[in-house]
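Observation: inputs received (chain + beta-D-fucopyranose).
Thought: call the complex predictor directly.
Action: predict_structure
Action Input:
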Amino acid sequence: MTVHPVPARSDFPADFRWGVSTSSFQIEGAGREDGKGESIWDRFCSQPGRIRDGSDAQVACDHYHRYPQDLDMARALGVNAYRFSIAWPRILPKGRLGLGAVNEAGLAFYDRLVDAMLERGLDPWCTLYHWDLPQALQDEGGWTVRSTVDAFVAYTDVVTRRLGDRVKHWITHNEPWCSSMMSYWEGVHAPGGRSLPDALQACHHILLSHGLAIPVIRRNVTEAQVGITLSLHPITAASDSAADQAAVRRHDGLRNRWFLDPLFGRGYPEDTLALLGEAAPAVQPGDLAAIATATDFLGVNYYFPEMVADDPTALHSPMRSRLVERHGVERTGFGWEVSPQGLVDLLTRVQRDYAPAVIQLTENGSTFEDVLTPEGRVHDAERLSYLQRHLAALKQALDAGVPVKGYFAWSLLDNFEWAEGYLRRFGLAYVDYPTQRRILKDSGLWYGRFLNE
Ligand code: FCB
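Observation:
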């Protein structure tokens, strides 16, 4: 394995964007406060057996009340950008205009939050959808029905009219893979669906809503920079056999190309469509053109690579491939393979095949068992090493000509990690949930030194 020196901030361009990433449902808490409506994640958490530790996010990190202190911490780290998301049910408790009024208290919260970022010199990067769909819309079918697309565009209009004078960076969706496939097919995320056709239709509607929201954002926000964030994976074959190589191509078709191809104007990949057969989504005339609306950047979330083998018996998977665990590699607490090289491979591949003008690495991070010492320290050597090696990999990709312009560490704080509840800590800061005390871990202290050097 190549050993790269730990980079310094000065190894990166002076205008590089350094940030931390968060999302509304995972940190805010205040689940029923100030008129917020129920989201699909509130509902999912209330169903026994859905969340591994039986928890919910009604309080989470109580960021709704503690945001000034959290943003102080972000400023002290030295980041110049802060990625957050809006909870749709705070703005439209019933999901759409017509089903109720806009909730002024919800908008006022994001006014305060954005103002607090600007006061601290943090550039706000706003994600419109990080998975907390209003339950009222799910009651109508959620992302599987086309009317949710219209609801998203109307919600985007409300939010960008209000915040667009101050927020210039907009991400329509976070990781459509998760909000469609994991949510409507694999059953592990809200709303817990188990149908591949539903998931593919949901995915199409999510991508369509992205495309249709772009002109609305541009109309309401002068000098808007708009993009979408995808979770992407470099994929390798379990062996040199032709069958395994072919499995890589199939797996990549659904995992990566299914999103990248239509966003970059190529429509859905033909080979993947052929494998999906009747499960393929209904696409109306004009949809693909809308999805391909030009953006200003591509957001990439990178966590881990995947290795696959051919598996004709994998009947549950239209890709007839199976994930294979690489032996003898480092893994995070989640079991995800640690591979800084995977980041280089992924970014150079995206650049080679799609050539986006700008890439923003909108999430990257790791979870490990953290221990708070009696002295009040968290010596998270593995997370620190993960961060340093991924920054070295990022530098390598930059040197190879990939136009990556920013890095956002996931996450500022330990938080509610979806179906894992509070069992997985990803923060640069440890959250002691009973007291809500925040303690910068060694990784966070290092990120601060790196940024402030
Ligand atoms: C990503 C999600 C983010 C967080 C990290 C660990 O898939 O976007 O909310 O859960 O994984």
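Thought: report the result.
Final Answer: The pocket of beta-D-fucopyranose is lined by residues 23, 26, 174-175, 178, 231, 301, 363, 410, 417-418, 426 (CB under 6 Å). Residues 196-220 form the longest helix (25 residues).
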